[in-house]
Amino acid sequence: MKRAASRERADAKVRPRIHRPLRARVITATEAARSFSDLLDRVQYRGETFVVERGGGAVCEIAPVGPPTFRLSDLFVVIASGPKPGAGFSTSIERIAREQAPVARSPWER
After folding, report:
1. What pLDDT sits at residue 69?
2. 5, 15, 25, 67: which has the fewest C-beta neighbours closer than 10 Å?
3. Enclosing H/E stretch for 92
4. Does residue 14 sit within a domain?
5. What CATH number is associated with residue 32?
6. By CB neighbour count within 10 A (0-12 exposed, 13-18 middle, 19+ buried), where does 63 fall?
C-alpha cells in the first residue's frame, strides 16, 4: 500500500492531472481493444464511462453522448469572434428595413 502511494505521488509530478469522472473505470488500451464491442455496449446501455490509459497515462475517455449544451454566454463568444461590421453597416440595415414592404394582415386574425 505504501509503495503504491509513493508511486502515485511520483507519477503526479511527471504527468499533468487529468479530470476523471467519479464513476469512470480506468482500463488499459489493450483491454479496450480486446473488448471494444462490449465496451461500447456498456457505455450505450448502462451509461458507464471509461478512461483509457496507455503507458500508465490517460489517453481518452469513452462516455455516453449527452445532449448538446449551448448557453447564451456561448452566443456572445461566437459573435465577438466574428468579423466586425464596417462603417456603413448600420446605415445599410436601416435602409433595408425602410424599403421592406409592409406585411399583409393575416386572414386568420379576427
Report:
1. 77
2. 67
3. helix 89-99
4. yes
5. 3.40.1620
6. middle
Given pLDDT bands bounded at 50, 70 and 90, which one contains residue 33?
Answer: very high
74: in domain: no
| Nine-digit cell string for 82 | 466574428
Under 8 Å CB-to-CB from 32, ≥6 apart: which residues?
A: 39, 50, 52, 62
Residue by residue, DSSP assigns 27-48 as EEHHHHHHTHHHHHHHHHHH--
Say yes or no to pLDDT of 14 above 50.
no
Task: Quote the domain boundaries for residue 23.
Answer: 2-62
